[in-house]
Amino acid sequence: MLVAGFTFNTFSENTYLLIDEATRQCAIVDPGCYDRAEQQALREYIETEKLQVVLLLNTHAHIDHVLGNQFVIDTYNVPYLLHEADLPVLHAVPTYASNYGFPAYSPAEPTGKLTPGEVVRIGETELEVRFAPGHAPGHVVFYHAPTHTVIGGDVLFRGSIGRTDLPGGNHATLLHSIRTQLFTLPDETVVYPGHGPATTIGDERQSNPFLK
């Protein structure tokens, strides 16, 4: 599996393409593309690399991670999966989108749900869904064991953790999620977060000040 990343919108949110090398099928995770230029950048990369988009995934449904959901669905006509515990988070976005500077936000409804422990398939690539609430009530991460890769959303960052002061957030729950769902993975596992640079489980286990 290959990972291609883009940084979109005023929250500097990381959008990822998860690419199955054998089939060139891919999933789009947390599309934060809001304006036309951001949407075009994503579409041009997909066209240039001759990728076939087969799935839309959300780690969670805060506004910065879902701004491009409807664009992806309209453009590629693919299933959209989200953990059902984050549906209230998703449904709240239209009530505050304009206040955050996104008046043209177009809401999209999931066509299926993500279940912890299940495997999501993209071509020959298999991703394990791990439940990691605390930042958001239905937050999940996607683990690809063969390449020791985690698409982590807003759970764990380089030297930091996700905020827990938003509705549905809980600090103790987030720390528990990190320790049981991420720190049980090998040290060499690369974490691709929802904001900022990638890190590794080993580095965060050793030096993250929130997890001492």
UniProtKB/TrEMBL annotation:
The keyword Mitochondrion does not apply. One of its GO terms (molecular function) is hydrolase activity. It comes from the Bacteria. It holds the Pfam family Lactamase_B. Residues 12-195 form the Metallo-beta-lactamase domain. Keywords: Hydrolase, Metal-binding, Zinc. Its cofactor is Zn(2+). Gene3D superfamilies: Ribonuclease Z/Hydroxyacylglutathione hydrolase-like. This is MBL fold metallo-hydrolase.
